[in-house]
Design goal:
Elements lengths: L3 E6 L3 H12 L4 E7 L2 H11 L3 E4 L8 H11 L5 E5 L4 H9 L4 E4 L4 H13 L8 E2 L1 H12 L11 H11 L4 H8 L3 H15 L4 H11 L6
Parallel strand pairs: 1-2, 1-3, 3-4, 4-5, 5-6
GO molecular function: DNA binding
Keywords: DNA-binding, Phosphoprotein
GO biological process, one term: regulation of DNA-templated transcription
Length: 218
């Protein structure tokens, strides 16, 4: 049986080293490439075609949602596991909407990460099988059972990413550069986001992003 090839995406080299050691302790698992931002993740995926990609969402510039979207556009069969500090249901659901096959929080035990990788690796192409850590599964279930909805449910993954970047304080030009868009296109997206959310100001956009857990409270 051949090794399971893994692409590891996180913006902290020391963190990547720790997870590389953890993953490669599992027999047959081999990290074939690493990346620290969305653009590098996309290029590494195209070059190495890993069996599984383990990706953080909090990447500099264009975040993990954007990297995930690009990878899935290029390869509909891509198996991507999100491994994130974000514990909110809204982020997890957006990741699945963008094509992720699993979501494990960094608060989880190491065994949960390994089990999630194994679950995704065993899934057949086109499978709806998903792997979630216990904490995020409970969060999603509790929110749905309570009938709660998040304002960002109305947004597409790219709109969610632009909302996140606006909330981090990035300018229109900086967002355009990060996402390889024109400033005019970013402005159009921002108007659409405001219309969908029913807000009129950037301050209310930031407040909405904070409440949805897209960015951390200072």
């Amino acid at each position: 049986m051949s090794d399971l090839s893994i692409l590891l995406v996180d913006d902290h080299p020391i963190v990547r080293e720790g997870y590389r050691r953890l993953l490669e302790r599992w027999p047959g698992y081999r990290v074939v490439a690493e990346a620290g931002d969305a653009a590098a993740a996309y290029e590494a995926y195209r070059k190495f075609r890993p069996d599984v990609t383990v990706m953080d969402l909090a990447l500099p510039g264009a975040g993990g949602l954007e990297a995930l979207r690009h990878i899935r556009q290029w390869d509909k069969r891509a198996r991507v596991l999100i491994f994130s500090m974000h514990t909110g249901a809204a982020f997890a659901l957006k990741a699945f909407e963008a094509g992720a096959m699993g979501y494990v929080t960094k608060n989880s035990d190491a065994d949960e990460l390994l089990r999630a990788v194994a679950c995704i690796a065993a899934a057949t192409p086109g499978s709806t099988r998903m792997a979630l850590s216990n904490d995020i599964a409970l969060e999603v279930a509790a929110e749905r059972l309570a009938g709660k909805t998040s304002p960002v449910d109305r947004l597409a993954p790219r709109e969610t990413e632009i909302l996140r970047l606006v909330a981090t304080g990035m300018t229109t030009q900086a967002i355009a550069d990060a996402l390889c868009l024109s400033p005019k296109t970013v402005q159009n997206y921002t108007y659409q986001i405001k219309a969908k959310l029913g807000v009129e100001t950037d301050a209310l956009l930031v407040w909405t992003a904070l409440r949805a857990g897209l960015v951390a409270w200072a």
